[in-house]
Amino acid sequence: MPISYTRKPTLKDAVVVEKIKRSLLLWRVLPSTTGKLVIVVRIHT
Fold this sequence. Notes:
The structure is a single chain. The chain is mainly α. It has one domain. 36% of the residues lie in helices and 0% in strands. It contains 1 helix and no strands.
């Protein structure tokens, strides 16, 4: 899924996105869990 920006991304943005990615990679659910999860992150500054 593409990331859309309304302003030019900064290095700080990239750091935040990487931290979120790492957290999601470590996140585990029960093996019996089925279905699909969609996460939308909106950051307003």
